[in-house]
Amino acid sequence: MGSSLGPLFADIYINYLEYKLKRRLKENGVLYWKRFMDDCFVLVNENTDINKLLDILNSFDVDMQFTVETEKNNSISFLDILITRTNIDVNKTGLNILPIEVLYSFLTITKKHMSIIRVVQCEQLLNILRLQYPREKLNNQKSLMLLPILYPAPTVFLSSSCILLTPVQKK
Prior knowledge:
alpha+beta; four-stranded antiparallel β-sheet; RT_dom; DNA/RNA_pol_sf
């Protein structure tokens, strides 16, 4: 049985690895990186060389090697959750023809009742709206009211490939 401090040391070490390699990984196509313990969920550009990313990660420490799992049929399992990439045509939703004021009121009410509405559903709606209202299109007084709701923090658009990276301890 390992030490009870093992997971803490592993987390500290992976944090250090992420800190040291962040710039190189971004330069080589990583758009988004999230981790839970030693499982990493990574979004990359479509033309990214995944083997090169793997080489970068595996060159950090010869005693620790990452493995990769890529999406199949636009889906990938991460922490026992199936994540599926979808392509939604905003013009078919009808959201693009709503007056800005109506949309703003709807979103404000939705945010107030987040305990009733599932967060995943709200995020899906916001992602659809972000496609219709990119930040650069919000340039008049009416559309600017949507800015704090649609873009409260930096956002990554998911027009990329998904990969799952897991470090494996070498024996």
